[in-house]
Specification:
single chain; eight-stranded parallel sheet; 18 helices; binds 1-O-alpha-D-glucopyranosyl-D-fructose; binds calcium ion
Length: 603
Amino acid sequence: MKTPSLATSFLLAFAVLAPVSMIQSETADPVPVPALVNGYQPTWWKEAVVYQVYPRSFKDSNGDGIGDIPGITSKLDYLQHLGVNVIWLSPHYDSPNADNGYDIRDYRKVMAEFGTMADFDTMLAGIKQRHMRLIIDLVVNHTSDEHRWFVESRKSKDNPYRDFYFWRDGKPGPAGPDGKPTLLPPNNDPSFFSGSAWQFDPTTSQYYLHYFAVKQPDLNWDNAKVREEVYSLMRFWLDKGVDGFRMDVIPLISKNPAFPDLTPDQLHNYGNAYANGPHMHEYLQEMNRNVMAKYDVMTVGEALGISLEQTPLIVGDDRHELNMIFNFDAIRSNRVGRDDFKPTDLPTLKAIYTRHAEKLDAHSWDTVFLSNHDNPRIVSTFGDDSPEFRVPSAKLLETMLLTLRGTPFLYQGDELGMTNYPFKAIGDFDDIEVKNAYKANVVTGKIPEDVFIANLRHTSRDNSRTPMQWDSSANGGFTTALKPWLAENPNYTQINAAAEVADPDSVYNYTSKLIAVRRTHQAFVYGDYKDLDPDNKAIFAYTRTLGTERYLVVLNFSKIPVAYALPGALKAESLILSNLATSEQNTSTLHLAGWDARIYKVQ
Ligand code: TEU
Ligand code: CA
């Protein structure tokens, strides 16, 4: 018998072996499910420390003043050294950038300004080589109005894509100055970015819905074709090796197609009225069945309008929807209404974490975050960004984020203690939310300009979008261009990564030690949480207990030093970590300096 050629013998071997591996997988011993820890099913995304990258502001690699993907790849060692192990990448897709990428024109294409698909693949490979993972931003409540689906949809009422979006007739309005009848939007739904959530389109004389900008029309998830398109694009990125999704305003995907007017109460917090629609759970379960269940992925939903009580219905491990969500109660705890600002009230903030511990049991995982690209800088908002206390308070806040219960999410620059920006005039802002609000409130004379701008110094999203401060060279080393897309914070000469990495006592190196403590002490992941002194206006003292392992975290949320007697005569035994290099231990009274943060092992 003729000896089969190499190719044939290989094919033969494969023919024989391959089915085995597949058969093997079918018959292979089931992957051992790790034993429960304190009732929790141990999982990589529960033990993760996530770092959010806002690509436009992270690192420019080609001198056009705009951050990009090769820029991120060039800083992966910096992130690995910090100790984070999951990167959340804000939108990197093709977009006209009406809302900085949260308006997607093509879900399978990388934004030209950010680079190419090859650049993306190189970044992903670099992340995996460093034993880190990548989750990307899934923005499917709406698309860009330049997405081909919408370009088609607006062409005619019988276009095959018409039902991909929400089109409605206007309501007859009062006669215009010329006596001609006018049209009003289908209902009184407001947009999050000022004005009505409905836009009239003369081509077909109908209105389309956009909860956000006019250039962000909402997708109609009641159309099964829309859902299949979404599942297909999710599989496209997961098949490339992406490890999961942060899902943008995902509770808004199911609408009441009758679009009744909102009541005055609902108008006060229309985000709640838009969330949790009739088919939300059904669509999240369908998405899970069709996509997530087939991959080892992490999903976190940005859950605008979802209460803590409703949270287990989305993240409960018996619900097969999402792994975790962002509740906005803590990060918005010092907001008055949607836009005004008040200083942090510590008992209010602490009560939120106690409620989370009560409402979310071992089957409903949580997240911990106090900053992102939609909120101002953490040290300026919850800490004290004065020269004397910026560093200790930035470290204190990282101590809190990395020892509370739930997956921690750090935002780029917080590991350096970056601060809010000294905005002076409307021209300093890039954010569409600000520009629209300016037209709606200042140009109309409702709010004096100086009051409007002063408030934005505390609340604007652009505070967190100023470019990363890499060193003390021009533009903080973010770009070699003369002018970055958004001005660098002038304090980059003092606050920058180069100085922080080189300084053993920096916020960066302290955060790195914190992440190491969390990684080597499972109590900070799966341990029970207990607030020891909920009414104390200055001190946040809590324990994390896992079996016989118990740790105490004490945080002085004020610049006033205090001799703090531990509740219940608890004894702070061995010191694990402190942000002010204290040596105090084996005592029940702690002499805390301003913004002092300490972790102790206790009996
Ligand atoms: O944000 C939704 C959301 O919560 C914000 O709009 C928020 O209410 C507001 O900005 C507060 O100032 C997501 C994205 O994170 C955000 O960047 C997008 O602008 C928005 O959705 C639309 O995609
Ligand atoms: Ca660039």
